[in-house]
Amino acid sequence: MSEIPAKATESEDPSDGARAKAAGERAAYDTQDSRAPRASRHTQDSGPTRTPGPTQASRTPQDAHVDAATSGFLADEVRPGDPVWQSSPPGSIYDYIKVASFSIGPDGLVDQWSLRAEQLFGIPAERAVGMDPIEAFIDPDLRERGQRKMAEILDGREWTGVVPFRMPDGAGGGASRSSEAESGGGRGRDGLAEVYVMPTRTEDGEKAAVCIVVDVRTLRRMETDLAASQSIFGQSPFGFVLIDPELKVRRVNHRFASLFGGAPDDHRGRGVHDYLPRAEADRVAATLRRVLESGDSITDMHVTGFLPGSDERRHWSINLYRVHSGSGRPIGIAWLGTDITARRAAAREAAAARRNLALLNEAGARIGNSLDLETTARELLDVVVPGFCDLATVDLYQGLLAGDETPPGLADGSAELRRVAFASAVSDAPFVGGGVPVAVGAVHHYPFNSPCADALRTARPRHVPGEEGGLVQSTLAVPMVAHDTVVGLAQFARTKGSEPFGERDRDLAVELAARAAVCIDNARLYRREHERALILQRSLLPPGDPVASGLDIACRYLPGNASSDRPSEVGGDWFDVIELPGHRTALVVGDVMGRGLRAAVAMGELRSAVRTLALLDLEPAEVLSALDEIARGLGAPGGVQQATRAARRPREADLSEVYLATCVYAVYDSVTRRCTFANAGHLPPVLVEPGEAALMLDVPPGMPLGVGGEPFEEVEVELPEGALLALYTDGLVESRDHPLDEGLQAFVGALTDPTRPLEDVCDHVLNTLDSHHGEDDIALLMARVQGLPAGSVGDWTLPREPRSVGRAREYARGQLLSWDLEPLVDTTELLVSELVTNALRYGEGEIRLRVLLDRTLVCEVWDSGLVQPRRRRARDTDEGGRGLQLVGLLSAAWGSRRTPRGKTVWFELPLPDGENGLTDPAEALLSLF
Prior knowledge:
By secondary structure, the protein is α+β, with helices and mostly antiparallel strands. The chain is built from 24 helices and 32 strands. The strands form 6 sheets. The protein has a 6-stranded antiparallel sheet. A hairpin with a 6-residue loop joins β15 and β16 (472-482). It is elongated and about 185 Å long.
């Protein structure tokens, strides 16, 4: 290790001047340290304040910076004429600089060792006294040069320099610990010291020396601290203030001075009341006192004030902490301030934006949950009051509520509106916006030149100032525009004392009104579609109370959500009662899967198809098979044939175009009281026999209509007199809250008394079951069996011989006379003769004649032939071919149907007291020619 170059000077007069100077300094030193006993050779050293330090000529510019940065404003307390050693009281710069002293005797060994030396080197006086400093502290490579320097010093030469030293073994604390901490432990026992050696003489006149030692590393650290301090006061972009214990400004940096005017020195001695308003200054002064007393720092304290010459309110974020001297004594408070005015404004803008976004998010979640116009309007007001305004109203065009089509484009503002919603956070009175108050539900219109009418006419919001002396400060009249169509007007008002509407509020109001307008327009379109679908659906159901031969009929149809506040789309449920020839009746209940107008139209097509197929007098299984083909054709562009062809090859079906339906079809014969059922995936019928519990009939369910590929089975059941038959859809027995099995058991349990009137039974079922019919349509068809009495039926078997024609006329005449139907005798004889003659000529097997009396008179001729009679138009020259034409002219209706053993040809005549008059047979015969 090499020695750092040092400066050595020779005393001008080693024998006189230097000696006198040294003696004077020693005398002063001895005077200050007279309390230390000489026998111990240990100096009670309090530092350079009592021991002469380096000469003034040897002080460097760094020394001045250190004094300025550490002593601070305390340097101002030095008074001219005071002794130099009294200008540094405790808490001075020497609390920061590690300065020690020791003396060397004539023998070159340590003879005095101060407490500061003990703290710096970590060696107690008992061990240090008598040590050779060169051998103890100097690196072995430098000891020879050190011995030469020591000899020169003892010869009377002063010497100043920076010396590397190492701690002897066994030394601890002091510089060794600080050096070890600074170097990270790598060379913890090495140090660097600035040494000032002054020649002295002992009492005996022998040459000695006094050494002043300063820790260089501490000086370098202070130099760094001084540079940092200068950067704070000269370069920092933040305002920095030093405040003394009297709460007076001692020093400010350039940034603070540039804000409040003047040079930094002009602010010395001022207080916080010179910068802040009184109330704010009192609060800050109290905080400063608390920081000074407790030592607790304050971070991000917001202070409000004004800059000189400006009326703009400024905001600062202040950090306060107590400043201590090197000895730990509080010497003031540091104030670090940042202007946060722009940040506060940005924070307010961000808070307003977040509030608006939250309001829009709430609007998106709460508006439009209902497909009802009035409910949607109320949902808008629930969002904006009181979060956005104090009072609000919604007006919708009267024609819109009535279901009229609103033409596209802008409204003229003069049409009638209805007040559909009102909300207030301050009162329950109607909205006061000028003119006569309008109550909720009232129909009104705005004057043509009014701001509201202008907003409706131009589709732009208008600001309406409040009236003098009124409650409202201002109002925003915002048109509700959906798909370029004005559907109404929303008004948002704030009362006096509230924040006035700004541009951001205006944009938010337009967005809220637009969202509500779209939901209202959707509700309007849905209401229109719902009403049309409901009209279509009801038009396709049987009008009035159906009437059937041998059956007492009662029915109920409830569309989905008919009594709910949230109406949904109509479904595809339907029922039908179809009269068949021979006083038979077809009972039909079905359900098209899906909802809305599409399902209603599909239901209408299937119902029409069922009625058409029923008139063909097909068997129930054949009717369902034909319906299945029709249902598959509904979703195919080419109709039934295209669907049939597509069924024979793999296809990628579009599920949105697939029509599926369930249906149960039953044919009841009032003469035999037998009922034939066929089921296509529908719920089973329920039968209640007199005196018995209700039970579900075991009818094979089959596949739903539209699936195809599977035949349908038939089940024939004989119904006892007075029995109750119930057909229904799943809306009656199934809901989201109750599974199907529970609903079926509840339905069966509700049919406890079949003897009650059917209307009462239907009402009892609907009131007893928790049907939740708002979720789905409900169709319920109930029939009580009342078979034809035996006296109303005439049945004869005739052999295949010509005499059977006359015998058939005799049987018919006698039966009608017994029923007091003499006006029908001639017509009946003529028509029976024609049908029996055809059976003899074109049929096979025995002939059966049956005459039935109920609401009409029906005559049937049965035979075993499979060939159906075909009506044709006879030419004028033809002798035959006019029999069926005659039947068609004289009867109300006629036809033929296949039976398991042949066919049946029938005709029907109204009773004499019926609404339809009888046709004169003579006129009918003449009309054939």
